[in-house]
Amino acid sequence: MKRYDLIVVGAGPAGLSAAIEAARCGMSVAVFDENTKPGGQLFKQIHKFFGSKEHQAKIRGYKIGETLLAEAADAGVEVFLNATVAGIYLDKEVLVQIGAAMEHFKADTIIIATGAAENMVTFDGWTLPGVIGAGAAQTMMNLYGIKPGQRVLMLGSGNVGLVVSFQLMQAGCEVVALVDAAPKVGGYGVHAAKIARCGVPFYLSHTITKAEGSDCVSGVEISQVDEDFAPIPGTQKHFDVDTICLAVGLSPMSQLLKMAGCNMVDDPRRGGQVPQVDENGETSIPGLFAAGDVSGIEEASSAMIQGRMSGLAAAAYLGFLSEQDKDNRLADLEIALDSLHQGMFAPGNKGKTFTKTDEGIAVSQSLLKKGYLDDADLERFIHRSDQTDEKSGIHPVIECTQNIPCNPCQDACTRGCIKVGKTITALPRIDATISCTGCGMCIASCSGQAIFLVDEDYAPGYASITLPYEFLPRPQKGELGTALSRSGQPLGHAEIIDVRSAKTFDQTTLVTIKVPVEQAMTARFYQPETNAAGQ
Amino acid sequence: MKSINDRSQDIGPFVSQTDDAIIICRCEEITKGEIRQAIHDGMFTVNEIRRYLRAGMGLCQGQTCGKLVKNLIARELNVIPDQLDPATSRSPMRPMEMKVLGNEEVSHV
Amino acid sequence: MSKHLSKYNDVIIIGGGIIGNATAYYLAKKGLSVTVLEASKDIGIGGSSRNGGGVRQSGRDTRELPLAMWGIKNLWPGLSEELGVDVEYTQKGNLRLGKTAAHQKILQGLTDKAVSCGLDVRMINGDEIRAINPYLSDEVTCASWCPTDGHANPLTATLGYYKKARELGVRFITESPCFELRKIKGVIRQVVTPDAIYEADKVLVAAGFDSRKILATVGIDVPMMPLKMECLVTEAEPPMFLQMLGTADADFYGHQSKHGSFVFGGSSGFEHLNKDNGSPISSSIGASCTCRGIIKYFPALADAKIVRAWAGWLDDCADHVPVISPVEEVPGLYITCAFSGHGFGIAPAVGYNVAEMIADGHSTIDLSALRYDRFKPKQ
User: What pTM does this model have?
Assistant: First the structure.
């Protein structure tokens, strides 16, 4: 029987990270993945990641995936694709389907990094073709280049629902509504704002009551819900759609761990049935680890750190790494993981309601209910003293109003105009004493697309606004279109006066529009004349 | 003794609901009403529902309906869902053809 | 530790498997008050839900054959109706298959014994076999054929008895393993669990191989050992055949269920040595080996997908025949265990007759050959 020092199940962010660390310590490592392509969800994640440099912030998920694959190859990791693990048996034996045959392997350590599967909710017609998971939509679009539908309704306002809604629009679909039974948006406000400014209406405290259609989805009915999430009769609304996308959470795919005999717990905060693990992911079975979503739903950034931690712990378990080196290196990773676990959206804060930011500013209720900041919010967040630019000329406006672990903007400005500070979740502050050159690096570095460059003095009676734009076709200089507000409402004509793309912007186009000066703080998106936003 | 262990406890009569016809287990086409009725027949665990109705026994092995079934049981029994064990996990983790599962170099086993 | 003393019952049954559930049902029908104590969280989680579903007479030891024949004649045909649950009883015969002269010899021996007990079973040749089941490979040359054998769904039969017994007022309590049996003034009286002490006039131990350690608390032993066996099930396939199947070599056994899936048990040759981690888990070689065995007999099933494999312990008796018996040394105590892997098919008959034994002091079928004290050393 073929043996390895370490067998990793799952070639996603956690599994690859674990394999790389272990292989670099000198271990023989095999990674099995049932998919045709490695990388797990990373290759579906075309958005820029949050976090800080150590978390690969502002880098798009698929590029992180490419880097991990290259590192795994360099480290000598053997990645087996189309390799479905049938089971884990006693004595750390792994039975794998490779091609049309079964192969038996044994390992002295095993790391399970099988990720998660999408949850479903039931409503009348939920089994009709056209009702799909958000992850499935992402797979169709980003791995296979298939448009899931023309008109889509998204259920779920967590980060997955918000990010996939944006991607659906990028792919050319129309997102007719974003619906969530919860009374407030579950994901990052900046993700919500990105789709709200494209004109997507938010229906919080609503749920789907019916998918319409006989052979496939032809429409959807939503209803408002009461405090107990029961639909309120008479509140139905109808939308013509061909696709209903469900983004209602993930469940760890922990069956292999359960089969292997690990002690399992049912922890709703971690997404369901998960193994009992120590801080490095070791289960109740010595030498058997879990990393990433399979041991608790988070996101790829923390999965990569958890993977590295379990890889190092496996190396130490077999003596490939001294206890002292292990402790030193794990300490650094724990700090990195800890910094991701801070802020309003930290795993420990699930279900909590924040009324104020860490800075003591009342949070935007409009952002939580409708997906965009209202005028009163602007007063509190944008016109606070440290952002008010008394001087004339171009200056950044940062519409980042929630404490989330992310700080690339502070390194983006070479002049040091933007500061987040040591606490990664602090709201970015603008140093008004430093003059802005308008280089746009801050816009491109903001994974939440929440930074704009505004020049109220662009021309008499006109302001210029530079905004991030990630749709095709790229607008052309001189083109005339419509300026949209934060809620996606048309404000009037806007002229494209500059279009910038650069390698350092990483496919984010910086579009500068000219609008009447009174729209300087209201226009936040651009819609080409010919068709709707996002086409 | 936990309340769910007393299978004679009164969980009230089975009252039909408007959405009882909704399918919960897609693979085996088991409805919400059938699952609720089974709970009233005394099937208080996910494993028992599985064996009584086949819910969660199809191609996806309960990956999709496992949580839904658990929540239905919890609601009928008035307990918190995480008090209920999920179904047993069994190999093979994915459906495998007999000719593949049986195809191994026995000398390498 | 002080324990809650539970309400008195006429009978306490230890074990919520099909034997315990069926006996509880037939006792309740006679008007007795019964409590069933199940050690695990689930009803019917042991051998009751981990078998091939055979309802066979052929191939049985002559000591248990009368019970099997009586059950097939009197209970199985009306069971779905009686329980209000479809137990999927199908009486379309049993084929025990062979390919070699050695197989032929084994099958002939079993057949001769059964015929001597009055069972309609006979040897048939390859053409006759394929007339009954056209999917069998040409390599199959001989079989024993018992047209009155069949199969049923062990899951719904076990839970059907549970459901019906519960409706008749039987109290079922899960997660209540029996630590100890206690006599009061020389007769059985108490069953001690972690949470409570249960009292009854009669106690039936129907707890599979766990029965051995339970019975030990009152100084009774049944010579049996747990033996891990493995099963697998396919996705639903179009209807192909209705017979119960086995082989002379015991490579596999099983049937196609009403749902369309094929349920097969099999062996890799290491079952008596297989280890586990406290629960009966599949070995890494079992399912693959069984698949190879099946394909040799049924080439048409090569593309059928296996969706699930599982293992279970059977309570293998010294002579591979069950113990179904009152225990005169401990008045009020009864035993049904050591079914050795073929208890499902006779479970209704066992439940019915043991209920008679407990309630009336005698049973329809003479069970004296299955007594607990039949095990004697070599002369």
Answer: 0.94
